[in-house]
User: Fold these one by one.
Assistant:
Number 1:
Amino acid sequence: MFKIVQREEMAQGTIVLNEIEAPRIAAKAKPGQFVILQANETGERIPLTMADVDTEKGTITIIYMIVGKSTSLFGSMAVGQEYYAVIGPLGKATHLEKKGKVVCVGGGTGIAVLHPITRGLKEVGNEVITILGSRNKDLLIMEEKMAKVSDTLHICTDDGSQGHHGFVTDVLKDVLEKEDIGLVVAIGPVPMMKFVSMITKEKNVETLVSLNPIMVDGTGMCGGCRVSVGGETKFACVDGPEFDGHNVDYDELSKRLQAYQTEEKISMDACQCK
Amino acid sequence: MAEKKVKKEKTPRVKMPEQAPDVRNRNFEEVPLGLTPEMAQMEAARCLQCKKPACVEGCPVSVNIPGFIRKIVDGDFAGATATLWEKNALPAVCGRVCPQEIQCEGRCIVGKKGEPVAIGYLERFAADYARKSGNVALPAVAEKTGKKVAVVGSGPSGLTVAGDLILKGHDVTIFEAFHKTGGVLVYGIPEFRLPKDIVGSEVATLEQLGVKIETNNVVGTTVTVDELLEEGYDAVYVGVGAGLPRFMNLPGENLIGVFSANEYLTRTNLMKAYLFPKYDTPVAKGKNVVILGAGNVAMDSARTAMRLGAESVKVVYRRSREEMPARAEELHHAEEEGIEFVLLTNPVQFFGDESGRLTGMECLKMELGEPDASGRRRPLPIEGSEYKMDCDLVVVSVGAKANPLLTNATPEIGLNQWGNIIADPATGKTTKKGVWAGGDIVTGMATVILAMGAGREAADSIHNYLTLGW
């Protein structure tokens, strides 16, 4: 049922794209929504936001960085092999609205998540300024695809191997100085989203972030993915994954993401899939 | 003559052999070991075969209890299972998890002067015997009606509806959000109370009868109830349970180490985290574990924590022993396994370290005041009684409420103030034509057998609708 129909390696094999047959999900999925995947019967369920859907082919696309046991397992699967379980579309879709000028900020595999949202914002008539960041030029993904859905594209690398030598926040500050921005969308590592939100809060610019807490079921059943937003506990899987970036408790999120560090290492060490 | 009478009275109720407490509290194997055929036949002979059996009235799905027990007496074990199957699609489950003391066994006439017939043990024996011997006499399926029914949720009520309607000749498809069927039977109730291969086997029997199953389908998002009706289903049964955990909204509740019982049990049972790293899903293993709440789910969580290697497991409850909602048998098992009960105590806040991990909990001692709306004496805090309890893992088990995923997508299905579906208590009909509901999504969190009873009534009503009209 959930057969891999296309597989692509990006960023020197550290990031992998899978296009997967999932017609019911493809028919429904909207930008910002995610799926839960499980590679095999002994596998764990992990959430990934969809980078694309093809309603005609009935497929969805996910892009993941190989960071542990489960993503290694995913990465070892070839075209023609099947995922044991794919569940979705889950979470709330991005509220796409015409805001005038918008800035889309993406880091790492967050760029994959950002892609359908950026396209959606463009389609409803916004002028889109995109800022992408990565450690170096080899780790940058989807540059061309993002260029297609953006009016302006900025690239930042930590080592200066491409574009601006520095962080996405440097460019963002600059853009916010020069332009009248109606919305910022930031998706990437937690510190990146945190710093983007700090900058936009000073300028009072509405900011959306997409959170990536640990999940189990993804349907609101367990609360494993709970996050504090504006002092209230929310379940990212049903109330999000997108939230007002100015109200998220990023420090709590960062800590909760470390909950199973020891177990994750044990799992990876016991695995032949490295 | 006198000798004969004495002999009859002295046949005691059978005792179920069990794993010893100090052995079983470190493994996930089933605690009760089941009856041998000899034990089952001896126990079955205690049944008086009443003409008007009160036990049947006490059973929410009206199993022909004297009938199946008679077959055990006669040594026709497959026949006993077939009799169970006429009314109950899940006998191996019910024999294990039903609160028989307030249902069938509570009404047994033998129980008036002594101990009631062990109906639950016998039901379990027959179902297990049939499964192990492979000698299952499946009931006859009626001629196909050509009508299609979608059953949403594969918990106890959904499985009952599916079993009833397939026997009546309808085409039944179950939609399940998880990758495995069984609902609370697979994610909630632990292996040591209900082995998962038994649930799998009961579901496989439904499939043999013709029930189709679509897992990984979250009705409400993957497909909606309206779309199912458009796809050609003539009726929809909603049995999605009460799968939204309650938290206590206390400071520090988002520290690492504080879990909902749903998460703790789902990781351990459904994802088999107790077999980590053979299975990939981890679960936190606490040394000093505190369970908040005192229902069956709390007992399951406490006993699970012990089996995962805890040094101490405390059940912290704000009322006293008498008010604990868990079954007496569960409390007894938990106590035998070394679980402590800290009664008349309520948490106030949780403490953590710099890395956000739980280190302790502040509690307040309580005393019981006047009875509240629920008829139970209201716990009142004793001023100045705060004290700190060290703990590195807390499982919040204070109940669950309705999950709105499905109902949000179908506003025509009327809800009450708590978000539960409004359904006719006699038929299960909702406010939307062609849609029935039952189990915890209607009643709020209740029992397996009540959900099955609701399923039975809805299945009868759906059958009437499909053959006669709304």
Number 2:
Amino acid sequence: MNVQPLTFHVPEPHPCFGSAADVSGFQLSDAARVRRPEIDVEASEIRDLAYELIRVLDADGHAVGPWSEACTVDQLRSGLRAMLKTRAYDARMTVMQRQRKTSFYMQCTGEEAIACGFQSALQAGDMNFPTYRQQGLLIAQDWPLVDLMCQVLSNEKDRMKGRQLPVFYSAREAGFFSISGNLATQYVQAVGWAMASAMRGDSRVAAAWIGEGATAENDFHAALVFASVYRPPVVLNVVNNQWAISTAQSVAGGAQATFAARAHGYGIPALRVDGNDYLAVHAAACWAVERARRNLGSTLIEWVTYRAAPHSTSDDPSKYRPQNDQAVWPLGDPVERLKDHLTGIGEWSEARHVQLKAELDEEIAGAAKEAQGSGTLVEGSKCSPASMFDDVYKSMPPHLREQRQELGF
Amino acid sequence: MPSLTMIEAIRDAMDVMMARDDRVVTFGQDVGRFGGVFRCTDGLQGKYGSSRCFDTPISESGIVGIAVGMGAYGLRPVAEIQFADYMYPAYDQIVSEAARLRYRSAGEFSAPIVVRMPCGGGIFGAQTHSQSPEALFTHVAGLKTVIPSNPHDAKGLLIAAIEDDDPVVFLEPKRIYNGPFDGHHDRPVVPWSKHELSETPQGHYTVPIGEAVVRREGAEVSILAYGTMVHVAETARREVGIDAEIIDLRSLIPLDVDTIVQSVIRTGRCMIVHEATRTSGFGAELSALIQEKCFYHLEAPVVRVTGWDTPYPHAQEWDYFPGPDRVGRALIRLMES
């Protein structure tokens, strides 16, 4: 027998974004084409939706199709404001990092619609288990920017007391679980939180968040198994922004099947949604959250988007992807698309847009000034080194008291 | 007072706490309907229902991960890992999450969870049913690590662990589940009913976490031990006729440094005994502490009798396990030095 030598397959950087941006391979469903199933649909009846893309806004900015009726104009304007605010906040914090007022920052540019739109589907008491790129969940609730900034600056008003890397917020009151640097861990914790809600006969739901790269972590699979077995009220969000630092989504297994399709093996219904379409995000989020709240179990949603900004302030994307990538990204910019839609229906204008941006810039500048008044990483006040020994345990054991004394406190 | 085995005492602790506090839930592989492969949760599902005691998929990171999420919600989960040897897939959740949640959120969230895991050798369990991974927990800031040596302490410590607002790794030496094994594998197993520490109060009581206990007072040498090794040390001491003080640490973190230091200062000699491998084992921490705090009172170098720095073997069980013969010979050498 003539046996050919085996060959080893390593995925190309990206089916769309190699050395030059080429989106011809990207499959787009037309807006309005994808049906909106009944809320109590069986997972097996919507398997096709994991390979489609739920979209509401068409190329002309019109809201079309069965997912289009979910938002009021007020909700849309508030969504636009939240997205603009998130973007402006990111921009400002990036500048502050460049000015060396802090060590590190991570933007969510291009992904604002997902967190902001999703939050609009939740109620007080629900709990998000976010990654480090869902600051929009807080900003959409008008969580005080000064509070976020103080965390990024690690100053004396940082509620995390300077212990955490910038952007690793925690805001229990806002249903925002403490962020960890360890990827995917929160995904299964969200399932546990939702199980607890069900075990207690509560009506609160959880939202789990993960990036497409981190779906390769074990806890992604553990979360899906537990969600499948116990059917807790949790929405399993996968934000597919195409990149895990420099690693394209194909290396996470995205070229073989969509991330939404992962849910099929667990019998969990899945949607795949245009993550840059605020209307689609809101509608799909409402669908999945209602499903959870009505005790119909979990839903996995793959949000298809694009990480427009560098991975972090420590990253240089020009080393691994083309410069014009965001410009040719077929799903465009979520802010521009919602702006065009609202303008098209006579509920927004260029003048109002400019005015809103100016107001937000002013608000953010004021917040930044106030936050810096409480210190930055490098100057001004920060939490005492003595506080470093607090909260390791509920009460300080003798060995930590001894170490604190050794440091001089 | 009823005489219980370790298994019965551990089950009783969960029963007491599930009855007192409806936030206490128990789960793990085979924990629910079947009652646990060691019977530690036998009957709990029948008594409290399957939303309080249930079976889980075989996923240690899932088991501990959901426990962290439930703890954040406000429950008090008692998760079981079937063997300590299988905790490694959960290690990320234990170390990166449970241990640090309170610290990283400045107290906004915490993980009031207990992770129970049968540990230790002496049962021909070989590489993956015999390990003693306590040092992998004691090295982690934010965790409490507890290991009982008898039914009385097992129940009291487990109740204390469930009531504790910090994450507790609760190690259960499976070799002494049914009787106080002293390392004489060639003799019949002695049941717990013949041991005074099997007398276990009914209802609620606690053994405080962070307090060691002097099992036997002695003048010549202090032996620091925990779990099965407490019984091995007592037998070894008796057989070589040395007046050793035996301290059962019970809680490794927080550690009862005062009890240890007072004893070593008085005896001037110290032996540390544990089943776990030697290098970077918890004995190294104990030894360093004694060197720092008792240096001028020491009349001989601190001695460690431990498992060898090898994976836990099967056929060579009794050459690996630090039994009374090895401990006794080391005691004689220590007294001569």
